[in-house]
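Q: Got a minute? One more chain.
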Amino acid sequence: MVDVAALEDAILAGERAALARAITLAESRRADHREQAHRLIQRLLPHAGGANRVGITGVPGVGKSTVIDALGTYLTGLGHKVAVLAVDPSSTRSGGSILGDKTRMARLAVDPNAYIRPSPSSGTLGGVAAKTRETMLLCEAAGFDVILVETVGVGQSETAVADLTDFFLVLMLPNAGDELQGIKKGIVEIADMIAVNKADGAGANAARAAAAQYRSALHILAPSSSLWSTPVVTISGLTGDGLDAMWSKVEDHRARLGAKGLIAEKRRRQDVKWMWAMVEDRLQARLRHDPALKARTPMLEAAVGAGELSPTLAADEIAKALGL
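A: Always. Here it is, folded:
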């Protein structure tokens, strides 16, 4: 039995071992662990919410880990405490965890003012992201004032991370051209900033040219807020060039929108959305683990597949079994 009050005190004191234990508790599938985690998070809520929450995504090969390692190190050098969390929907299929999280971010891994945590290794994307949100709240209560949420997978994970954070950063490669055509419009629409990485050495000119193309492309999209137009910057995760200017824009966004109450409003919408994500996750868990449903579902699937039962009637039977 976990002493929730003692764990709360240890987290507020900044004890990393207590934070790790609390996160493991929140990620557990055991009902008693989840109940204890919920009580702990509820007690810690008044101490959470103060961090600058930044989501980071990028195309494969863009150098996300290098950028996050460099940015996190830059921020700890300024006196910030940085937590790096990851949302990885690919792990929901393989059952594996993100490989080499700490080896990919060598400097942050040994930085006493940084904390790196991968996403849970199983569950639906909504469930993974909901657990990442709980981890974020625990990290904030432990004193971390910058939360970097990395999307490791592809597809819906970008939207999931955007719905977890205050600011969404999209990293791009310097060779715009065909890549510009391949950018999903939806991802660009939710971006608060685009940063062209690898703007160093021979790639510097190409990065500047790509940035100009991205700026032109953004002109055709209406800004998400009258207070903010999506900037495009060039950076180098390898050398650290441009990271200071990039971060100043993140802080400018927080100051502008925060002054109008828009950050708080966005977080309230996110809270409601993740409430429903957790409801859906629990319904999925019932479907996977309820003994009667597990025994009945294959027969229903076979009957529907054979044309012997309509999908509507099969769905009705499952819904009734769930008490809906």
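A: The first helix runs from residue 4 to 12.
Q: Perfect, thanks.
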